[in-house]
Design a protein that fits this description.
By secondary structure, this protein is α+β, with helices and mostly antiparallel strands. It has a single domain (about 5-405), classed as Up-down Bundle (Outer membrane efflux proteins (OEP)). It has nine helices and six strands; from the N terminus they run αβααββααβααββαα. It has helices spanning about 5-20, 35-45, 45-65, 95-165, 170-205, 225-230, 240-255, 295-360, 370-405, and strands at about 30, 70-80, 85-95, 215, 265-275, 280-285. The protein has a four-stranded antiparallel β-sheet. A two-stranded parallel sheet has the order 1-4. A hairpin with a 4-residue loop joins strand 2 and strand 3. Helix 8 packs antiparallel against helix 9 (about 370-405). It is elongated, with a radius of gyration of 37 Å. About 20% of the residues are buried.
């Protein structure tokens, strides 16, 4: 059997090795990350639900500061010698401090819902960015895989023609066909991954046409502050503000439970008999807490325990967030170091090795298998760098959740 003619495959090999991704044509429709965020916020209803709950609590607070509605009293009594008809009003009058506490408590709970809306604002940004980055990676990887497969198919076709005239060995042909089949399998997997990523992004922005492509360039993200600045901003995170509001509402509940005398009740009663005798009665009633160390004090103690538990939960959440920020920041820096290594060493060297292998094979001083391995390795390194780029951007999106307002 003859050898694979070098001059036939060298043009393909050079194109196979050095074609940059930036030369690929863009599709007619492209969706940027900023526009994707705009669409997601336009479609979002969760934030409006938090605002509606806050408005509801404000309204309940306004009602809580007012006296309860009076009650109408109607009565009839028949004795041996006369009949009585009664008409009256009963008004409950809570302590003024209790009314203020109830109003303030509803206000604090309303502010918690407003801060919860801020939490969701950050979560929505993070979720959309992560979904966008996922789809962006799958689309860019598909371009690399399709380009790789296209070149392998052309080389396999040329090799088959050379094999027919005895200029390519069967081993060389099978090696090339095997690599082509492996790349076809990768393309099938990549298509499935791209469809799944498209569905995840559609969760936030609605259906996405199959023809719609994301921007070719790496999605823009706000820059990260230093690690110390990130950690210093954590106590102001709205999620911790929600916990703080729960603590404040619990403290008010303690003060309410400690009020043994909650108010009094006034009854005004008009009575008239069948003999036209009339009288007006005015009565006051007040609670007499018996054994206050029992029910009232236990209710107050229960409320204090709940406040203490919420405080511990807030502290634990802050510690957890600090740990996540530290771990994420270290990972973000390490990924940046690896990307620099790929940009300055691995990618240039892998392209150089592939070019040298192609030149050596052309001049019959190198092996066919070595050239094929180096060419495949160059494309694998392109995919690895793309994964690193996407992974670092995803970590950055996670960290922005803790600091971006």
């Amino acid at each position: 059997m003859g050898i694979f003619r070098p001059m036939l495959c060298v043009p393909f090999m050079l194109f196979f090795v050095v074609l940059p991704l930036s030369l690929w044509a863009l599709e007619p429709e492209h969706l940027s990350l900023p526009r994707t965020l705009e669409i997601a916020f336009e479609r979002d209803t969760t934030q409006e639900s938090f605002k509606a709950r806050a408005a509801s609590l404000h309204e309940r607070g306004a009602v809580a500061s007012r006296l309860p509605d009076p009650r109408l009293l109607l009565g009839y009594e028949k004795a041996e010698s006369m009949e009585e008809y009664m008409l009256g009003v009963r008004q409950e009058i809570p302590r003024s401090s209790r009314l203020r506490l109830k109003q303030d408590q509803f206000g604090v709970l309303a502010s918690a819902q407003e801060r919860q809306a801020e939490v969701w604002d950050r979560q929505l940004k993070r979720n959309v960015r992560m979904a966008y980055l996922d789809l962006w990676y799958q689309q860019q990887a598909l371009k690399i895989v399709r380009h790789h497969l296209s070149l392998l198919s052309e080389l396999a076709g040329a090799a088959a023609q050379q094999y027919a005239v005895g200029r390519v060995s069967q081993q060389q042909l099978v090696m090339l066909e095997l690599e082509e089949d492996k790349e076809k399998d990768r393309l099938a997997r990549s298509l499935g991954d791209e469809e799944a990523a498209r569905a995840r992004l559609a969760r936030w922005i609605g259906s996405i046409p199959e023809t719609l492509q994301l921007d070719e360039k790496s999605p823009p993200l706000p820059s990260l502050p230093p690690l110390e600045a990130l950690k210093a901003a954590l106590p102001e995170h709205p999620l911790l503000a929600v916990d703080q509001a729960s603590i404040q509402a619990g403290e008010m509940e303690v003060r309410l439970a400690e009020q043994y005398y909650t108010g009094f009740m006034v009854d005004g009663l008009y009575t008239r008999t069948d003999e036209d005798q009339q009288k007006f009665n005015l009565m006051f009633s007040i609670e007499i807490p018996l054994a206050p160390s029992g029910r009232q004090q236990r209710n107050a103690a229960a409320a204090r325990h709940q406040v203490r538990a919420t405080g511990y939960d807030r502290l634990e959440r802050l510690r957890q967030m600090e740990g996540e920020v530290e771990a994420g920041y270290v990972r973000w820096e390490r990924l940046g170091q690896r990307m620099d290594l790929y940009q300055t060493r691995i990618l240039p060297q892998s392209h150089m090795v592939s070019e040298l292998a192609a030149s050596g094979y052309q001049h019959r001083v190198g092996e066919y298998a070595g050239w094929l391995r180096s060419s495949v390795a160059a494309f694998e390194n392109e995919l690895s760098y793309l994964r690193l780029l996407t992974e670092q951007a995803s970590v950055q999106a996670e960290l922005l959740y803790y600091t971006e307002k």
